[in-house]
Design goal:
Low-confidence stretches: none
Mean pLDDT: 91
Structural class: mainly alpha
Distance between the termini: 15 Å
Radius of gyration: 13 Å
Order of helices and strands: HHHH
Number of strands: 0
Oligomer: single chain
Helix content: 55-70%
Length: about 90
C-alpha cells in the first residue's frame, strides 16, 4: 500500500510518528518502574521496524503487547500507548 508521491506507506509514517512520541514521553517520565527497560527496548524495536519500511505484522503486534504490558499501568503514558496501538492496528492482521 503505497501512500504519498514519495512512495512512503502512510501507515509506516504513522507508526514512526507515534513511536517517537511515546519514546519522548517515556524518556520524560521520571518515575522508575519495573519494566521500563522492556518498554524502552521494544519501542526501539518498533522504531527500527518503522525505519525499515514494511514491518512484519506479527512482530509489530508482539512488540506492542510487550510495551502495553510494561507501561499499561502508567496512566500518564496511556494516550501515547493508544496512539501506537492505533498505528499498529492500521497494518491489519497477520
Amino acid at each position: 500500500m503505497e501512500g504519498d508521491e514519495g512512495g512512503e506507506d502512510p501507515r509506516v509514517a504513522g507508526l514512526r510518528t507515534s513511536v517517537a512520541r511515546l519514546r519522548r514521553e517515556l524518556a520524560s517520565y521520571r518515575v522508575e518502574f519495573t519494566d521500563r527497560g522492556i518498554a524502552e527496548g521494544e519501542l526501539a524495536a518498533l522504531a527500527d521496524m518503522a525505519e525499515g519500511g514494511a514491518p512484519e505484522v506479527p512482530r509489530l503486534r508482539r512488540s506492542l503487547l510487550l510495551v502495553a504490558s510494561a507501561i499499561g499501568s502508567v496512566s500518564a503514558l496511556a494516550p501515547g500507548l493508544a496512539e501506537v496501538r492505533g498505528a499498529v492496528e492500521m497494518f491489519g492482521t497477520p
